[in-house]
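Appendix B. Chain record.
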Amino acid sequence: MPGTKKPVSVLVVIHDPSLNILLLERAAHPGYWQSVTGSQEADENLPTTAMREVAEETGIMCAPDDLRDWRMTNRFEIFAEWRDRYPAGVTHNTEHIFSLCVPENTTVRTNPDEHRAWRWLPWHEAATACFSWTNRDAIMMLGRAAN
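Structure tokens predicted for this chain:
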């Protein structure tokens, strides 16, 4: 039976003022490091999706004004192993990019069902550690814009 997940998601690159990037390791895929990601639910607007996903995945609470909407999207093929979560025939996702600057040493609280570990890395190391090309590219853009 096909799923009902919307093929619209957010990527939220969380960083501190020194451009250390928060990465999360997926519980189901050890070694897969990423920023906060998640699908839009029901009638949520994209900033609401981003705030919800940040809170669910990291325990960090933020307001809409805390987020920077890059007004940039990526379209990519959904991994075959995850396609059953989406309606029949859906093969691609549209991802909207946001960033969130938090104070250094911000406390992170992950859900062990979703992520097994977290770490802060300098932006260039974080980009290299990401398994997702969209995540890597967003971190590289953030780092280059600051330098």
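Further analysis of this model is presented in Appendix C.
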